[in-house]
Specification:
With 172 residues, the protein is α/β, with parallel strands linked by helices. Helix content is 55%, strand content 11%.
Length: 172
């Protein structure tokens, strides 16, 4: 039996975490291309399977969304993909445990840079604007920092440069 056949499941190439609007999806797609692996965005998986996130929050509640999110994250982390997690996915203790030992990148962004990224969006937790975003980030920041192997600010750098940095780090 070879080592490859004895492994229980693949390890994600890279997992991107961070607040809403940090660029996890945009950067993640580029990183996946550079590493030659597929890309999975857990929020997009939820939308494809269950409908818009805002509608899930409004019609079924945040608890239902978080359960769907835990399931999507568990499935994504069982692949060799580059994985982008929704901003609140790291709140679940099960997800925090699953991220132990993974190559986790924390993408940060400042409030001035995120404001235009959030404008006109349908993100249910930041309907009240950047102030709500900042409050959520302040609550989650210690978890992001604890889970991350590297932190990269996306506020004013091109996505391609960020992706190249993440891919280089993942190859080490």
């Amino acid at each position: 039996m070879t080592e490859a056949t004895t492994q229980a499941q693949p390890r994600p190439a890279v997992v991107l975490i961070g607040p809403m609007g940090a660029g996890k999806t945009r950067v993640g797609k580029r990183v996946a291309r550079l590493l030659g692996v597929p890309f999975t965005d857990t929020d997009r998986v939820i939308v494809a399977e269950h409908g818009p996130i805002a509608a899930i929050f409004d019609e079924r509640g945040e608890d239902v969304f978080r359960e769907l999110e835990r399931e999507a994250v568990a499935a994504a982390l069982a692949t060799d993909h580059v994985v982008a997690l929704g901003g609140g996915a790291v709140l679940a203790p099960e997800t925090q445990e699953r991220l132990a030992g993974q190559r986790v990148v924390y993408l940060t962004v400042d409030a001035d840079s995120v404001a235009p990224r959030l404008a006109g969006g349908s993100r249910p937790l930041v309907r009240d604007g950047v102030e709500a975003w900042q409050r959520i980030l302040d609550e989650r920041r210690p978890i992001y920092e604890r889970l991350a192997g590297i932190t990269i600010d996306t506020s004013r750098r091109p996505n391609d440069a960020i992706a190249e940095e993440v891919a280089a780090w993942a190859r080490q």
